[in-house]
Design the sequence.
């Protein structure tokens, strides 16, 4: 493991997934939002990318959940698998509660060539509601006031009931166990002021020769909004690594 140190949106409906095309070759980058967030939360990151990308919005993670919607991580990952491009490699990028989902997808999809986990949840030591609330409060005081006009419309669109139901299902998923099953290059990104994705928890997730922690100074939990270029840098490095691997495999006749 190694360690390295927006604009305002209108509260309009967003599609379940959307894709941007690019002439640049390479894996498609697939984003999954955090709890209550949607495609708008990735706008700054996607605007700076050089290759194709898409956002998959899920019940409680980008859109309102129906009363009968299954919000377990395994059900959410099946929705992502159904939305993936039919061919070609992919890099999965999750934020917060979206991280367990992309990890679970990667355990089932061999075309995943890279993972970016931004502020991943949930530390097994903090699965209870009192501990999670303490983490959220301890992190919220370090967020920027300028985030509120961006976040509020997304939270309203998803709805507090959907968010509560979603986190109830997601919080007990063992992201660490799922990640340990993988042999995929992984970047774990956390803000230095993030109490939700603590330094200890992220270091444990990145306990692999294929993983590294990227620590963002003066950032809290909303790194995709406050420091999109950090996320872009991790994606581009994973994309370059995958492209080199493809060239090596082609040259060896595989």
Sequence:
């Amino acid at each position: 493991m190694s360690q390295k140190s927006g604009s305002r949106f209108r509260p309009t409906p967003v599609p379940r997934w959307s894709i941007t095309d690019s002439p640049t070759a390479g894996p498609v980058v697939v984003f999954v939002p955090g709890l209550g967030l949607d495609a708008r939360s990735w706008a700054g990151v996607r605007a700076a990318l050089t290759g194709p990308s898409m956002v998959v919005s899920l019940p409680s993670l980008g859109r309102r959940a129906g009363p009968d919607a299954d919000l377990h991580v395994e059900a959410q990952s099946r929705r992502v698998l159904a939305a993936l491009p039919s061919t070609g490699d992919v890099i999965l990028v999750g934020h917060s509660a979206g991280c367990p989902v992309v990890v679970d997808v990667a355990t089932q999809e061999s075309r995943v060539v890279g993972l970016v986990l931004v502020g991943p949840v949930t530390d097994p030591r903090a699965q209870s509601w009192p501990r999670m609330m303490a983490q959220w409060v301890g992190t919220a005081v370090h967020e920027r006031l300028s985030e509120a006009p961006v976040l509020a419309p997304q939270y309203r669109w998803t709805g507090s009931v959907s968010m509560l139901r979603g986190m109830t299902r997601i919080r007990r998923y063992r992201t660490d166990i799922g990640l340990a099953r993988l042999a995929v290059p992984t970047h774990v990104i956390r803000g230095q002021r993030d109490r939700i994705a603590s330094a200890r928890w992220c270091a444990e997730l990145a306990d692999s020769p294929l993983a590294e922690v990227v620590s963002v100074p003066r950032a809290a939990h909303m790194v995709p909004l406050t420091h999109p270029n950090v996320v872009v840098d991790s994606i581009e490095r994973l994309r370059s690594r995958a492209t080199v691997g493809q060239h090596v495999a082609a040259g060896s006749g595989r």
